[in-house]
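Hi L., both proteins are below.
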Amino acid sequence: MKVKVYLGLGTNLGDKEQNLHLAIKYIEERIGNIISLSAFYTTAPWGFDSDNSFLNAAICVETAFLPFELLDVTKSIESFLGRKRKSMQGVYADRLIDIDLLLYEDFVISTKELTLPHPLMEQRLFVMEPLAEIAPGLLHPVLRESMLDLYKKLALYRKTNSYK
């Protein structure tokens, strides 16, 4: 059985556009058929200070992998592309590539290894803007709001509170 999953992609080191294109290539080769891909968005770092801006995107993929299998495959792609380690306990750093599992159909999972939907997605413009682009009507399985509505609320909040 194939399911639709949504992944967030990000990079802020090296040739950022090439990093995203390589990640997309390996996602298609190793995970499944790409259903949709957002534009690439240049964004400021989130959760840490860096002189390097990010390039972010969202992608929808059809896959037969189960959630924990998918997590293992995304980690292997990150490692293959040069990522040394994932962020731990809210400590973020510059990275060649980051592949986050955002949504896996309407599954809700909360374990030490994996939380779905991604626990911080609705707080991050760099996730919500590209996700709203490719899946505006998709409902968040916990919040029961569309990706477009969540993006608009977050954008308005950030604009009125001058918070990046």
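That was the first. Here is the second:
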Amino acid sequence: DLKLACVRGAIQYVHALETGIVKADLTSTSENIPYSIGAVTHEGTEKVLINSLNKEQSYGYLSRNKDLTKIEFILRDEEGNLKYRYYYQNQADAYKACTYEEISEKYKNYREYMIQDETDTIRDFEVKFFVFAAKDKWGFYVIPIARTGPQLYLGKEQFFAFENNIWEVNFFDGNK
């Protein structure tokens, strides 16, 4: 019944729009993410990379040793409750030598999240995992950038969905 009510409402809206009964005024605002993404630091504390309560913090990074094989990212709801754990498999053979300019060109839509100052401060044998909310999908990206000597290396990018059909049930999927 809920789905049919939504369809009926959409039809009524389109009809009202066509007949001039209603005037649409569309505005665009930044996305509101009801989740936080964090990861555990070297010191064992959880660092918030994407903050659900702060629209300005839709990205962050975490530094680790380049030999790391797996890193865990923690999804929490607005109340801070654990919702899901994601695991990024760090593959040493997936890193390709590159320059900051190549990274900037490849990720031009996300350039503001991987600024040159942050890549310049990557130390020898360190990897920074840049984490940011996707602009075109409901989730976040993890992009590792490492350094050996003066050379930068770009690792394998991975997208993680904020929600999946296994744990998230809502009014729009007909299961609640």
